[in-house]
Amino acid sequence: MQGKNELGDVRIVDLDADSEFRFEVDFKAQVQIKLLKGTAEIFGTELATGVDYTFSGRKAAVYTWHEYTANETPMSSYLNTHLAIQQLRTLARSSNELGPRVLVIGPHDVGKTSLCKIMASYAFRQGEKPLYVSLDTAEGSITMPGAVTATAISHLIDIEEGFGSSATTAASMGSTTMPLAYYYGYESPSENVKMYNLVVSRLASTANSRLAADADSRASGIIIDTPGLIDQVGYELIWHAVQEFSVNVVVVLGHERLYSDMMKKYKDQAGITVVKLNKSGGVVERDKQFRTQLQRTKIKEYFYGTPKCELSPYSMLVNFNDINIWRVGEVIAPSSALPIGMENMDSETKLVKVDSFDMCLHSVMAILDADDSEDEGNLLNSSVVGFIYISDVNDEKKKMTILSPSPGRLPRRHVLMGAFKWMET
Ligand SMILES: Nc1ncnc2c1ncn2[C@@H]1O[C@H](COP(=O)(O)OP(=O)(O)OP(=O)(O)O)[C@@H](O)[C@H]1O
């Protein structure tokens, strides 16, 4: 395998069987990797021989199988887990039932997203079309940070861009393959647990009914990536996701206590299997700065596309009167912080209309799939048709400038604002 940085320095690396070449590239730097001979994969997607793959702002590993030798990486256990899940799919197909619903949990930075990608890629390579669900609002791996999403894996996950080129750009182009998304609007679920659980429930219910109606994907089931929360709030979120998606396989990655707590909780529940897998030594911790940078990159990608598929967003003027901007009411104290029995009633999920447009400047907002006349109490039940960015606000003229991936009028007038801001650079 050959690696080349932007200064033109070339390195050739010989990869033994069952070993990984791990690399980290800064956002400002670029490296190219080329497979010269043999077979290798990145998070489950195979590399083609002789093709230059370019990476920037990424931490990843090139893995090679050949045959089993040492057990230095947990890849063989990931493969075995996939094979067991694959059997459940075959079984489901023969009885025309819903395939496995797999939930991957664990603390931050243990490789949950990577494992989900690996399992989705392996499933796809075996002809399956599982639904990939991301409940990780910090990451925005499929559309935007702040959203929970579901998308059918109908083509290979891109080596260089992850879901970037497949889902984000499809979404920006208003394609019908726009992933199903609901907008929560904050990075961490603990900021507003009630609202987070509400959007997860909505996503689960729509995803379940889509799957029930899609004979092609039904037996392939669902793979669910989660945020890395394992404190008291985290457990609540896990129980909730298990229930809403009728999860029957819980994969615990890299955390003994979490595993034994899950075993305790589910040992008497027929039909739920709890599996423990080790964290890969290659998983890298990402500091706050790297995560923020990753979020900015995701937001930018939504509007401007990726190096492989560039987009030019449209800038348009919108009258204050032509748009209804909503945000969730002031959360005085999250319910989780109040004494048992006392609830913050509905302020955590009650929308208030934003009338000070100044506060919208540089915000990312979700356009809700709701009719103009929709009751405000129902808006949070709406999925997302796309995202916009407010690049300028002119109070005098009562207009604002909006950046949108598609031309023409706003498709809907109700938009939901969260906490994500971004500065075009
Ligand atoms: N085997 C590996 N070699 C090198 N890098 C890896 C490997 N596995 C994962 N990584 C990288 O480590 C980082 C963390 O992995 P990942 O996003 O899968 O963890 P996570 O548990 O989903 O994180 P979180 O949920 O906290 O965001 C990512 O940048 C990923 O690309």
TrEMBL record:
<feature type="binding site">
    <location>
        <begin position="109"/>
        <end position="114"/>
    </location>
    <ligand>
        <name>ATP</name>
    </ligand>
</feature>
<comment type="subunit">
    <text>Component of a pre-mRNA cleavage factor complex. Interacts directly with PCF11.</text>
</comment>
<dbReference type="Pfam" id="PF16575">
    <property type="entry name" value="CLP1_P"/>
</dbReference>
<protein>
    <recommendedName>
        <fullName>Polynucleotide 5'-hydroxyl-kinase GRC3</fullName>
    </recommendedName>
</protein>
<keyword id="KW-0539">Nucleus</keyword>
<feature type="domain" description="Clp1 N-terminal">
    <location>
        <begin position="15"/>
        <end position="90"/>
    </location>
</feature>
<dbReference type="InterPro" id="IPR038239">
    <property type="entry name" value="Clp1_N_sf"/>
</dbReference>
<dbReference type="InterPro" id="IPR032319">
    <property type="entry name" value="CLP1_P"/>
</dbReference>
<dbReference type="Pfam" id="PF16573">
    <property type="entry name" value="CLP1_N"/>
</dbReference>
<dbReference type="GO" id="GO:0031124">
    <property type="term" value="P:mRNA 3'-end processing"/>
</dbReference>
<dbReference type="GO" id="GO:0051731">
    <property type="term" value="F:polynucleotide 5'-hydroxyl-kinase activity"/>
</dbReference>
<dbReference type="GO" id="GO:0005849">
    <property type="term" value="C:mRNA cleavage factor complex"/>
</dbReference>
<comment type="similarity">
    <text>Belongs to the Clp1 family. Clp1 subfamily.</text>
</comment>
<feature type="binding site">
    <location>
        <position position="59"/>
    </location>
    <ligand>
        <name>ATP</name>
    </ligand>
</feature>
<comment type="function">
    <text>Required for endonucleolytic cleavage during polyadenylation-dependent pre-mRNA 3'-end formation.</text>
</comment>
<dbReference type="InterPro" id="IPR045116">
    <property type="entry name" value="Clp1/Grc3"/>
</dbReference>
<dbReference type="InterPro" id="IPR028606">
    <property type="entry name" value="Clp1"/>
</dbReference>
<dbReference type="InterPro" id="IPR038238">
    <property type="entry name" value="Clp1_C_sf"/>
</dbReference>
<dbReference type="InterPro" id="IPR027417">
    <property type="entry name" value="P-loop_NTPase"/>
</dbReference>
<feature type="domain" description="Clp1 C-terminal">
    <location>
        <begin position="311"/>
        <end position="424"/>
    </location>
</feature>
<dbReference type="GO" id="GO:0005524">
    <property type="term" value="F:ATP binding"/>
</dbReference>
<dbReference type="GO" id="GO:0006388">
    <property type="term" value="P:tRNA splicing, via endonucleolytic cleavage and ligation"/>
</dbReference>
<dbReference type="InterPro" id="IPR010655">
    <property type="entry name" value="Clp1_C"/>
</dbReference>
<keyword id="KW-0547">Nucleotide-binding</keyword>
<feature type="binding site">
    <location>
        <position position="20"/>
    </location>
    <ligand>
        <name>ATP</name>
    </ligand>
</feature>
<feature type="domain" description="Clp1 P-loop">
    <location>
        <begin position="106"/>
        <end position="305"/>
    </location>
</feature>
<dbReference type="Pfam" id="PF06807">
    <property type="entry name" value="Clp1"/>
</dbReference>
<keyword id="KW-0067">ATP-binding</keyword>
<keyword id="KW-0507">mRNA processing</keyword>
<dbReference type="InterPro" id="IPR032324">
    <property type="entry name" value="Clp1_N"/>
</dbReference>
